[in-house]
Amino acid sequence: MLTEAIGTVTVTAVDARDCANALMRGLPGAVGHVAMNLTTPAALTGLVAVQDKAGNGSDGLTAINLSWTAVTGDADFIAIWRKGFGDYPEYNDGTGVTPVAPVTLGGGWTLVNTIPATSTGYIDEPATRDFWSYAAYVSDECGNTSPVSTITSGTLNYHLGDVVIRQAATTS
Questions:
Q1: Do both 149 and 87 map to the same domain?
Q2: Residue 40 gets which letter from DSSP?
Q3: What are 24-76's pLDDT values in tens digits?
Q4: Residues 22, 93: one domain?
Q5: What is this structure's pTM?
Q6: Residues 125 and 79 in one domain
Q7: Do 21 and 103 reside in the same domain of the chain?
Q8: Alpha-carbon dihedral sign for residues 40, 111, 122, 115
């Protein structure tokens, strides 16, 4: 099992080529030392999703504002994931399921975006109507990835009340 430490690299042979792919002379050098970072970043905390009810376009969809607590420590980027409940518009009598971990492409989740770890918010605009849940991972420059954040409880990306009231015609 690897642990975080200083590793030693010894070069015993070198094959170097120039731009024309001709072999160039190369000689092994002295022992080098490489820092090995195997520490996973802390999970993103405080993830919240809120429907933006003002300032949206005319397509009937609303943006979803995501926010979280600032990431500290060894972090390079945040990967934001989204999954819908399914069965719009009647969520209660279909096959929709509340999204759960693991948060992966194979689990039906969609990678929305990767953003700098210095960010504390993101605005998402899903293209289809649904009840959206979000989760996120933090990764460092060495490819170490945090555990998944908490999964948000679900946020609509459209206004409720898209209904037409019809009254029966009466005759006298």
A1: yes
A2: P
A3: 877 777 777 777 788 899 999 999 999 998 888 888 899 999 999 999 998 99
A4: no
A5: 0.76
A6: yes
A7: no
A8: positive
Domain check: are 57 and 114 in the same one? yes
Structure tokens at 163: 């209904």
DSSP 20: T
Tell me the C-alpha distance between 1 and 42, whole Å. 21
How do residues 119-134 score in pLDDT, each as one tens digit? 999 999 999 999 999 9
Q: Both 65 and 109 in a single domain?
A: yes
Q: How many residues are present in the chain? A: 172
Q: Any idea what the CATH number is for the domain that residue 52 is in?
A: 2.60.40.10
From CA 127, how far away is CA 123, in angstroms rounded? 13
Two tokens at 75?
Answer: 């972090």
Compute the half-sphere exposure of residue 135: CA atoms within 13 Å on the CB side of its CA. Answer: 22
Q: Do 32 and 56 belong together in one domain?
A: no
Using the structure block, give the residue that is written with the tokens 């770890």.
117
Q: How many helices (H) and strands (E) does the chain have?
A: 0, 11
41 upstream amide cis, omega within 30 of 0: no
Provide the domain count of the chain. 2
Structural domain span for residue 11? 5-36
Instruction: In whole angstroms, give the CA distance from residue 94 to residue 39.
Output: 43
DSSP-based three-state secondary structure for 22: coil
Token code pair at residue 70: 């600032």
